[in-house]
Amino acid sequence: MTRRPVSPAADARVPVVLLVPALLGLALLLLPMAALVVRAPWGRLPEIVGSPEVLSAVRLSLTTATITTALCVVCGVPLAWLLARTNVPGRPLLRALITVPLVLPPVIGGVALLVAFGRRGLVGEWLYEAFGLSLPFTTAAVVMAQSFVALPFLVVAVEGALRTADRRYEDVAATLGASEWTTFRRVTLPAVAPGVLAGAVLCWARALGEFGATVTFAGSFPGTTRTLPPAAYAAINAGQVEVAIVLSLLMMAVSVTVLVALRDRWVNTR
Amino acid sequence: MSLAARLALTRGDVSLDLSLGVGTGEVVVLLGPNGAGKSTVLSTLAGLLRPDAGRVVLDDVVLVDTSAQVHVPARQRQVGLVVQDYLLFPHLSAVENVAFGLRSRGSPRGPARATAAHWLQRMGLAGLEERRPHELSGGQAQRVALARALAVDPRMLLLDEPLAALDAGTRPAVRADLRRHLRSYRGCTVLVTHDPLEAMVLGDRIVVLEQGRVVQDGPPAELARHPRTGYVARLVGLNLLRGDAHGRIVTLGPQAAVAVAHDASGPVHVAFAPAAVTLSLDQPHGSARNAWSGRVSDVEQHGDLVRITVDGPVPLLADVTPLAVADLALGPGVEVWAAVKATEVSVYPA
Amino acid sequence: MAVDGTVTVLAAASLTEAFEQLGERLADDYPGLKVVFSFGPSSGLVEQVLAGAPADILATADTRTMDRAVDGGAVSGEPTIFARNRLALIVPAGNPGGVTGLADLAREDLRIAVCAAEVPCGAAAKRLLDTAGVTASPDTLATDVKEAVSLVALGEADASLVYLTDAAAAGENIESIDVAESEQVVNDYPVAVLAGAPNPEGAQLVRDAITGEPGQQILGEAGFLAGR
User: Fold this and answer.
1) Which residue of B has its CA nearest to A176?
2) Between B243 and which of A7, A177, B252, C122 could a Cys-Cys bridge form, CB atoms 3.0 to 4.6 Å apart?
């Protein structure tokens, strides 16, 4: 006769002391979302979702968030490696600076981007004069604004993964004759892949929801720079509350779908 | 292919200072208690650690020379390393693991895989090429790790406790296999272990390391017969004492002397097996020339026999049958006499 | 009659400088009174009021936005027009885009900022452009008029249509270009006491100060036209 092991967790009773605050927190998070769902103009949903403004905002949001994430992975992984694995001087300071966008109000971030990359900006002026390149009001500016706020998420996640990875695998790879690049590519990177993916997912979500920096640096124009958040803001200002609700629902639906799908399949490997 | 190494290194609790030489095709076992610094020696030979001072020459190639600021990085040393938990790359299959070194050195995928598959076959692992490390048993993983190290044809093979992760049941078979592979490997091998049986079976020569220093260096047989420290003696299961020899008498202390069968002079070790000791409650009057009084301090099961620890002017271990223990009512505190025949005592210069 | 307490005023962004000055004058005249301002796009402010924001006074930049507040039952009594405003075509100091008139707002090679259509400034701009027969090609739709002014002042936009009063307040970072048609497009600025005002007495006082003195003098100096 085989006895099935009883999981101790299943048997544990949840202490009330923990349950109450947990439920309160959950309520704070879920009630607004539930309210959006309840007040949504379900009858007009297809018409609103199909409208050109909404479709363009959705397309723009998905495109820019994805490009931003790709950019952040390409730049963020090496940066995380620099912080976690090298002896570059001033790393604590660097690490602190990299996390500044996390606490900076996004609008301030947008102002900073403008001052740096605007047509009269520190770097932007040179770009404009040398190449005729003007960044504000372009879709590229949207990607830059999103990257500014989302990159720290990726760097922090990957740096954490690199720190906890077992360095001895890399030692073994060295004895087998692998170059630094080969070791990074075939040993380190696969080992931190879950961390990179988790960071990328966070990065994507943050980029999707970015508003303040986008609006300040890239402006807001349908089709070019009006992603879902600025579109919702414009809708509210125009008194089109229903459109704003639909846009919010769309953002919620997209985020939840992506986060649930990715977390299960890719992030929890082995 | 031979190795000549001189190393001095202090790192945390470990303080190393030793010379090590390995001949072509020789298997040298570094034996010692935990904390002796054995793994540190391997890491230094592999190029993963820098010694504070020293010189390592492998096949006439200077790998390390601290006085000349020479330190060849690990990836250029052509040294194979097998560690206690194998560290097979988890996301690669067995054959990809074995092929890793070859591909890292520029070999194209096809030939590298073929060579790797061939090595797996030699290890008796044909059919397991596509298995991931977590799908392999301990013994299989150990052989894949060995194949991975050997596939790049290293000049020197370093093994760190290669059998420690295996359970007692699989160990003998894997040990025998390992011995075969080490015999057929033509480079020099340094193997680290704390298990004396493993050292005896696998090693051509055993270097005993205690607290970062070499205390004995010789073939297994020599160690077994003539241990030079208490640690080694315990490992090989002998009683070991030090004294001054004058002819056939060795003085151990004010009230203790041992009669031996051969002439000797000067400082010596005397060694005899616990099984050669007989215990009695009264002073013996038999032919044994050696009889000492003492007091039982410990009684412990030891296989089929019982190992008695006797304290006194001549402290020793005696192996007796359980029947004898019962007959003599041996227990802690009991006064006994221990006797050993002079012919059972081995004496050699200290 | 001593009036004290706090009075919260929600006002269109274009009223920023004038109302802040008014607030200082009121603080001098009525030491116990504290006037708190919140400036922003009129349409956004109306949304806040409709959602129940605890404010005493609402002042918008056109009647269209105020009407929504009235229709929503948020206003007590009738709104009063207290000022009027015209538009101005502004460019960064030095006029890097070489702008001469409204027609230049249609140029693709220039960076044009225009207020979003649902904001009074944007609605007025549209009326002006329609009157002049120009189709603008904006690169960004500013949330409120102050944002449009900032973009021009920073040199990020080559031209924008903002209120006359904002052009005056922006100082030397911008230049104004005369536009003949601007006489024809005028925004009426209404002010009203809100239905749920926490401080109705204080609200009355401030409202009267806006529609009478010292408000009218301050507004006039800022460039606003009289309400009547």
Assistant:
1) B101
2) B252
State the complex-level ipTM: 0.78
Cα–Cα distance for residue pair C110/B207, rounded to 1 Å: 83
Any CB–CB contact under 8 A between C175 and chain A? no
Contacts of A184 in chain B (CB under 8 A): none
Total-model pTM: 0.75
Domains and CATH numbers, chain A: 75-265 (1.10.3720.10)
The conformation of residue C183, written as its DSSP 8-state character, comes to G
| Contact assignment for B101 to A177 by CB distance below 8 Å | yes
> Is B212:B30 a contact under the CB 8 Å cutoff?
no
Residues of B with CB under 8 A from a CB of A: 46-48, 73-81, 83, 87, 89-92, 100-101, 104-105, 134, 148-149, 152
CA atoms within 13 A on the CB side of B18: 26
pLDDT, one tens digit per residue, over B128-164 is 989 999 999 988 999 999 999 999 999 999 999 998 8
Type and span of the H or E element at C5 = strand C5-12
Apex B328 CA angle, B324 and B333, nearest 5: 120
Encode pLDDT of B7-31 as tens digits: 888 888 778 889 999 998 899 999 9
Residues of A in contact with C41 (CB under 8 A): 237
DSSP structure class, residue B341 = -
Write down the H helix ranges in B193-321: 196-202, 220-225, 230-236
Check CB contact under 8 Å for B100 and A179: no
Beta strands in B120-238 (DSSP E): 156-160, 188-193, 205-210, 213-218
To the nearest whole Å, the CA of A135 is away from the closest chain C CA by: 9
CA–CA distance, B269 with B241 (Å, rounded to integer): 6
d(CA B144, CA B116): 10
Residue type, B186: R
CB contact at 8 A, B188 and B28 = yes
- Please give the single-letter amino acid code of residue A43: G
Closest C-alpha among B7, B82, B84, B4 to residue B44: B7
Choose among C43, C140, C154: nearest Cβ to A120.
C154
Contacts of A221 in chain C (CB under 8 A): 138-141
| pLDDT tens sequence across A12-62 | 677 888 999 999 999 999 998 899 899 888 998 899 889 998 999 999 999
List the single residue in B75, B87, B89 with the smallest CB-CB distance to A177.
Answer: B75
Count CA atoms closer than 13 A to A125's CA, side-chain side. 7
